[in-house]
Amino acid sequence: MIQLQSIYKSFQGKKVLDGIDLNVNDGEVVAILGPSGSGKTTLLRCINFLEKADSGEITMGNTHIDVRHATKNQILEIRRKSAMVFQSFNLFKNMTALENVIEGPVIVQKKNKKEASKIGIELLESVGLAEKINFYPSQLSGGQQQRVGIARALALNPEVILFDEPTSALDPELVGEVLSVIRNIANRGITMIIVTHEMSFAQEVANRVVFMDKGNIIEQGTPHEIFGNPKEERTKQFLKRIT
Ligand code: ADP
């Protein structure tokens, strides 16, 4: 479903991704863990071209791109197939929850507004926000805003959802409600890649855990393998530090 081959990325001469190879199967939930600065967010952003990798190949479904020769149309195809949930929600402040959710379907996908609204309301209900559809982001808690962000991603009907530390901007008491929504989506079989610091969540929800350090994938395996029996010293040290 998604195949990354030899993804390299540097910022101002500093190598942040050092040849990443990663395959994600249809319906798989992959959690990416690793120390701060190891390149997790950059990798996620390179997958849907919010950041353009310096070199490498990205395959998503039947779209195959050599990033050095990526055309505008290929990038649009990848963006159409993927949706991102951001750490800082990135909602439009002057739009209600529902308007935020239907913006992509109506403006980008040219869907009928009435039809998009119907789906948008259903999605907001499915993330527990039936009462808040006409509220503005400033009237919502962080957890509620992030649930709008998740409904907005789902509204695009993507083949994969990329979660970039979706709970790290939240007060601790609001983390649970967002994780519970993500857990529900995972159970529906949608392909997801989640960068997270929530170890117990990763352990419970992911089919596969990928550990990154210094721009490399150091080790990957089932949650049982990575948390129960990590093989690499760097993985062991990381898990020791954070648990
Ligand atoms: P992680 O998500 O693992 O914390 P990031 O991908 O956010 O790591 O960052 C990896 C490194 O790349 C960090 O050193 C960060 O400062 C640097 N970096 C990320 N984005 C940019 C950018 N737009 N410009 C310059 N440096 C960046």
Low-pLDDT residue intervals, each spanning 5 or more residues: none
**Count of alpha/pi helices:** 9
Distance between the termini: 32 Å
Give the ordered list of helices and strands.
EEEHEEHEHHHEHEHEEHH
Shape: globular
What is the rounded Rg? 18 Å
Overall mean pLDDT: 95
Task: Describe the main β-sheet briefly.
Answer: 6 strands, mixed
**Major beta sheet, strand line-up:** 6-7-8-3-9-10
* Share in helix: 25-40%
The count of strands amounts to 10
Beta content: 25-35%
Secondary-structure content class: alpha/beta
The hetero molecules present are: adenosine-5'-diphosphate
Which helices and strands appear, and what pairs or packs with what?
Blueprint: E1 2-11, E2 14-24, E3 29-33, H1 40-47, E4 55-60, E5 63-66, H2 72-81, E6 82-85, H3 97-108, H4 113-126, H5 142-155, E7 160-164, H6 172-187, E8 191-195, H7 199-205, E9 208-213, E10 216-221, H8 223-228, H9 233-242
Parallel strand pairs: 3-8, 3-9, 6-7, 7-8
Antiparallel strand pairs: 1-2, 1-4, 4-5, 9-10
Bound molecules: adenosine-5'-diphosphate.
Residues 11, 16, 34, 36-42 line the site of adenosine-5'-diphosphate.
What can you see in these coordinates?
It is globular and about 50 Å long. Helix 3 (97-108) packs across helix 4, helix 4 crosses helix 5 (142-155) and helix 5 runs parallel beside helix 6. It has helices spanning 40-47, 72-81, 97-108, 113-126, 142-155, 172-187, 199-205, 223-228, 233-242; strands spanning 2-11, 14-24, 29-33, 55-60, 63-66, 82-85, 160-164, 191-195, 208-213, 216-221. The strands form two sheets. The protein has a six-stranded mixed β-sheet, sandwiched between helices. The chain is built from nine helices and ten strands. With 243 residues, it is of the alpha/beta class. The longest helix has 16 residues, at 172-187. The two termini are 32 Å apart. Bound molecules: adenosine-5'-diphosphate. It is found in: Cell membrane. GO terms for molecular function: ABC-type amino acid transporter activity; ATP binding; ATP hydrolysis activity. Keywords: ATP-binding, Cell membrane, Hydrolase, Membrane, Nucleotide-binding, Transport.
